[in-house]
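Preliminary data (for renewal application), 2-acetamido-2-deoxy-beta-D-glucopyranose complex.
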Amino acid sequence: MANVMGFFHFLLLLSCFPFSLALPQINSNSVLVALLDSHYTELAELVEKALLLHTLEESVGKHNLTIFAPQNEALERNLDPEFKRFLLEPRNLKSLQTLLLYHIVPARIESHSWPNSTSHSLLHPTLSHHRVQLSRQDSTGAKFIGTARVINPNAVNRPDGVIHGIEQLLIPRSVQQDFNNRRSLRSISAVKPEGAPEVDPKTHRLKKPAPPVKPGAAPVLPVYDAMAPGPSLAPAPAPGPGGPHHHFNGMRQVKDFIQTLVQYGGYNEMADILVNLTSLATEMGRLVSEGYVLTVLAPNDEAMAKLTTDQLSEPGAPEQIIYYHVIPEYQTEESMYNSVRRFGKVSYDTLRLPHKVLAQEADGSVKFGHGDGSAYLFDPDIYTDGRISVQGIDGVLFPPEEKSKEEKKTIKVATAKPRRGKLLEVACRMLVAIGQDSRFTTCHV
Ligand SMILES: *[C@@H]1O[C@H](CO)[C@@H](O)[C@H](O)[C@H]1NC(C)=O
Ligand SMILES: *[C@@H]1O[C@H](CO)[C@@H](O)[C@H](O)[C@H]1NC(C)=O
Ligand SMILES: *[C@@H]1O[C@H](CO)[C@@H](O)[C@H](O)[C@H]1NC(C)=O
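Predicted structure:
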């Protein structure tokens, strides 16, 4: 099963490139490019997280698009945090996509096409296949889309579409329903993740719970936030024996794997970071309880000892380092070795988005990372239970582009270049990587 998933993931990765090559129609004057460059950055970011770029590119080639773009505030401050978390959970990718596509009509609706009075509301099909209602309030003349007031009509007008700024997010009924169902399911679920793993009574090694976050300290990143939906994410595995509502005790499994790491020897630093320095053990337990599978690439103590205090002391740094070592897939030594043997190089998603970790065959083993910063699979299958897999490695991995990106950032600030949408950046990076950037003129800005 793990092999099949790995292979499938790899096919998806491969298929990215032919798709990107097939975008000759998109031009820099497109409404889509305008969205990515607009000040509707929260929406653009969600579109990216929802993996909708390709769908929209195809769509804008066929018809005009009208995009109802909620202002940033609607997505930042004015959204129920629980609902937002729901949208960002990988397994709710479909809900997020439905919600976003509900904001896009495959036709041109300009400001003057709004009905004149409440009694003449118009229904338009959206890309989500739910319909939205255009209406006008008689008393004020204000334009509405569903329940949201249009605050910036024709904010952007391009030959292939328009963007209207709206006051709040539109939530299609089916998504609201999914959210309600999930919430009631959670409230009756038997297993609640508790605090950090406790003890092995014999060794007393894990007795100390994760310290509370100090007031004023940088908030500990929840794994959910670090984790955006990606093609590699397996859907939640079949429910356990307790029936469809049974939740798995992920906390116990995380506790098991950390005890195993400690008893195995040579991985105390990693265990310590997970349990004592951060609350990542708890976060992982929660994810596994929810049905996710994880592969942890655990650097051994020697590798950890080479980390400088600089690398560890920035707020959130230990979390960021660990996120880059967690793959949201279940992989064993065998499945990874088979993949790299077969395909040469394989990129795995990590919880440190958007960074992937490269794996390739070297000296009859699996080597992770690039150049100097690489690490070998050193202690295979330290722990495997079907959901969590722990593989010991002999180096600490860092995303390769981190350094050059930071340099770029400072240059950008200095020359005050116009801000480019995050999604566009991803698209450009991808095109540059395969030598096709000249088609996407905005990439040269
Ligand atoms: C988009 O709308 C413009 C203006 O109405 C029209 O000229 C153009 O043909 C439309 N494009 C598509 C792909 O339908
Ligand atoms: C709105 O009213 C104007 C004039 O009163 C009319 O010409 C126009 O067709 C109306 N538009 C709609 C969409 O009903
Ligand atoms: C966490 O800290 C305690 C106290 O410093 C230590 O005894 C324990 O070994 C640490 N846990 C791990 C997993 O290293």
